[in-house]
Write a structure and sequence with these properties.
Helices cover 23% and strands 31% of the residues. It has four helices and twelve strands, in the order αβββββαααβββββββ.
């Protein structure tokens, strides 16, 4: 199984990444919590934080590693498959969602926001399943604000980190020479994916 140290053997600028944060805008807008006047500051509502590291040369047997930034656990993904990567993220989210909410949720919901952050949304069965069974839409936007009418939205934020910013040293991922910081805005704009219906309180 591939681990982060295997990435150290690759040539410079062989790795790209995505900082990916997933959250849920439950509750009401709270200015004391950093929310905006008419919308949620979604950076304040992120519960799950990941870094997806990819060997863009495809030299490694498992060219993608998902790093859970909350726990430090790493998960390798075979073949660099985006769907498999999203499924790994969904499983991690659901384990902790069970702890937080007392039950698991539709894995397709977590998988959908992860896929939307890592790729285009068209053509994925998990997205179609959620929309057909729950209704509403899954939207793509940029920035960190979701309108207050979508009070209970599952969402994902992502920043693509180019190869020339990433180095691997002593089994750790560094961005511009510093350890990955889930809360840092490495670029001024996030890609945002969110549901307009409350998929967290719906059952498939």
């Amino acid at each position: 199984m591939t681990n982060i140290k295997d990435f150290e053997n690759l040539e410079a600028e062989s790795c790209e990444g995505h900082l990916l944060r997933i959250g849920y805008t439950s509750g009401e807008i709270d200015e004391d919590n950093g929310d905006f006047e008419f919308g949620f500051n979604v950076r304040q509502h992120c519960w799950w934080n990941f870094f997806v590291l990819e060997d863009i040369t495809q030299e490694l047997k498992n060219p993608v590693i998902v790093i859970d930034l909350n726990t430090g656990e790493n998960y390798s993904v075979e073949a660099g498959d985006t769907e498999l990567t999203a499924q790994v993220i969904a499983r991690v989210c659901n384990i902790t969602a069970d702890d937080m909410f007392g039950r698991e949720f539709a894995s397709e919901a977590f998988e959908s926001v992860a896929l939307g952050c890592l790729d285009e949304l068209d053509g994925y069965d998990c997205v179609n399943t959620i929309i057909e069974d729950i209704g509403g839409f899954i939207e793509e936007a940029h920035g960190v604000e979701i309108d207050e009418e979508y009070v209970n939205s599952l969402f994902g934020l992502s920043i693509h980190i180019c190869a020339d910013y990433i180095t691997i040293k002593d089994g750790k991922v560094l961005i511009e020479g510093e350890p990955v910081d889930a809360k840092k805005m490495y670029q001024p704009k996030y890609k945002m994916i969110y549901f307009t219906e409350d998929v967290m309180n719906s059952r498939l």
